[in-house]
Every structure is written in C-alpha cells, then in structure tokens.
Amino acid sequence: KFIENDWKRGGEYEGVYMSLATIHESQMKSTLQHARTEDNYAPTMAQIEQVSAEKGGASLIAAGFLIEGRLTHAKLAYLEYLGFGLQLLDDLQDVREDMKNNHRTIFTQTLAEGQPLDAPTARLIQYCYCAPAYAKFSDDQRTVSDRKTGVTLAHYVRVSMMMFSVVLVLEAASRLKEYYSKDFYRELSSLSPLTFSDLKKVRVEETIWSIVRNQWF
C-alpha cells in the first residue's frame, strides 16, 4: 500500500512491481542452494552461479525502482552488475555460517570441491574493477564535481563504493586464513591498506554503518 502511494500500478511504473515479483521468484530459486544429506542432493556450480546472479541483481534493481520509479536500460544493467558483486561479497562474508548450514554459494561450493578460495576471491576483486562498475549516466541529476570532465558527484560516489567493496573483500578474507593457500593469503595481505591483523580488529563495515546510523537517525 505504501509503495502504491508513490508509484501507481500499471503504465510507466509497472517496472516497480515487476522487480518486486522478480525478487520473490529469485528467493524461491535460492532454495536450490541448500545441499541435503538425506537424499544426497547438491547443486552444481552452474546452478549456484545463476541463482546468485539473479538474486543479487534482482535485489538492487528493485531498490532502484523503488527510489526512482523508472530506470533506463543502462541503469538496469549497472544495478544488475553491482547487485551480483554485492551478493558475492555477502557470500564471502558468510562462508563459515553457510558451511555449517550446508548452504552452497560459489565460495562454499569451491570448498566442497576441495579447492581453496583463491580463485573466486581473485575473480571478485577483478569484478569490482571491471568497466561496468564505473558506468556514467547521462541522466544523473547531481552536482557536477569536475567542470572539465562533467563527472558528477553521483559518479564519484559509485566509484568510491566499488573501492570500499574491495576493502570489504579484503576484510572478509582476512578472517578466513585457513581457506586460502599460504601464498595467496600473503599476497592479499600485501594489498591491504592495513595489515590483516589490524583489519580484523577494525570491523570496517560495522564501523561505517554505526557512523551512518548516528548521522541519519
């Protein structure tokens, strides 16, 4: 009802309701990620990748529709890309809990297959640096931060968010030493702005959210 007060059903805002339905559908599909010992069911990596991409993309697309009512194709693609990346980050942060619950993500499936988390973690960092993560949008209605280039404040915020995501990947990895090869873990720690021992104590995400809550609420 509250959503309908902002965006009327049908017509130009139908995307709002389609995106919410897509979230529900993707959440239903996520049950496929639960391995079951009673009937020896285990999802394949291909299934896990598809469900993770759909679930992450759907969540952020729905958020975009709820904020703006309508989205361009470019923003849809960007939010889908970013949503998958954030889903992977969340999965990396939840590795231990997911292992206990037999919940298969790209990371826990890798471990179930007897492999360290080196490759999927490296791919996640690369994912954060790929071109779509730094997309610019012609309809950004924001203050122009750089008059020479026309880059908006919104674009700078998006770039900063991706850089922050890499820090969160490093923070999550710092707590999962036993799941990485020694060489890869050492290389990751050398890339961190803080030593891994310090990064574990800082709890970056919790600290940032605490600041946000204090400022906004």
TrEMBL record:
Source taxon at top rank: Eukaryota
Annotated protein name in UniProt: Uncharacterized protein
